[in-house]
Amino acid sequence: MIRVLLAEDQAMVRGALSALLGLEPDLDVVGAAPDGEAAWREIERLRPDVLVTDIEMPGLTGLELAQRVQRHALPVRVVIATTFARAGYLRRALDAGVSGYVLKDAPAERLADAIRQAHRGGRAIDPELAVDAWGDADPLTDRERQTLRLAGEGLAAGDIAARLGLSPGTVRNYLSEAIGKLGVANRIEAYRHARQKGWL
């Protein structure tokens, strides 16, 4: 049996995925978490074979969760199940060592197959998305991405600084760098552009 952990913030989707995967004879859904931090605790507790995670979640995103799994060199394969068919997200997912990237509107069998492939050590990526992923390179650093994401949520430089343990001047520098790299006029435009590209 392949032991699967789900990380999905929408309760209805989490329940549906759990039920659908539970129908597969070789898959055992051992846990389900509503956000990235809870998923991390469950990974440590349950030691699943495969983590199936959404990208957008409160606190720790699915991509940050995948990066943490990679950083700790855990023997857990990560499969992203998302609505975001954006090359920027896929590229960052691949950089984080993700084994599968499946869109939520795909048939349930495709997700089950992606889990099996990931468990065998393979990769399950939509071919069209994979080609697109090597288009525009993400120019942002992790810090620029963090500050821009928080600015896009409406936080002022001082609030972002407090949240990230930085000085307000450093935050303004990161935002200025991001705006310059993206070739836009202000932080709101930078946030919109980076989100549309899948870089946040």
Explained architecture:
This protein is an alpha/beta fold and 200 residues long. It contains ten helices and six strands; from the N terminus they run βαβαβαβαβαβααααα. Strands 2-1-3-4-5-6 form a six-stranded parallel sheet, with helices on both faces. The chain folds into two domains: 131 residues, Rossmann fold (3-Layer(aba) Sandwich); 56 residues, Orthogonal Bundle (Arc Repressor Mutant, subunit A), CATH 1.10.10.
The pLDDT mean sits at 90
SS field, number of helical segments: 10
Shape, principal axes of CA atoms: elongated
Query: Could you give the count of β-strands?
Result: 6
- Largest sheet data: 6 strands, parallel
What is the gyration radius calculated from CA atoms?
18 Å
Strand content: 5-15%
Helices and strands, in N-to-C order? Answer: EHEHEHEHEHEHHHHH
CATH class of the largest domain: Alpha Beta
What is the percent of helical residues?
Answer: 40-55%
Task: List its traits.
200 residues; alpha/beta; Arc Repressor Mutant, subunit A; 2 domains; 6-stranded parallel beta sheet; 10 helices; 6 strands; elongated; DNA-binding
Q: What's the arrangement of secondary structure elements?
A:
Blueprint: E1 2-7, H1 11-22, E2 27-33, H2 36-46, E3 50-53, H3 62-71, E4 77-82, H4 87-95, E5 100-103, H5 108-119, E6 124-125, H6 127-132, H7 142-152, H8 157-164, H9 168-182, H10 187-197
Parallel strand pairs: 1-2, 1-3, 3-4, 4-5, 5-6
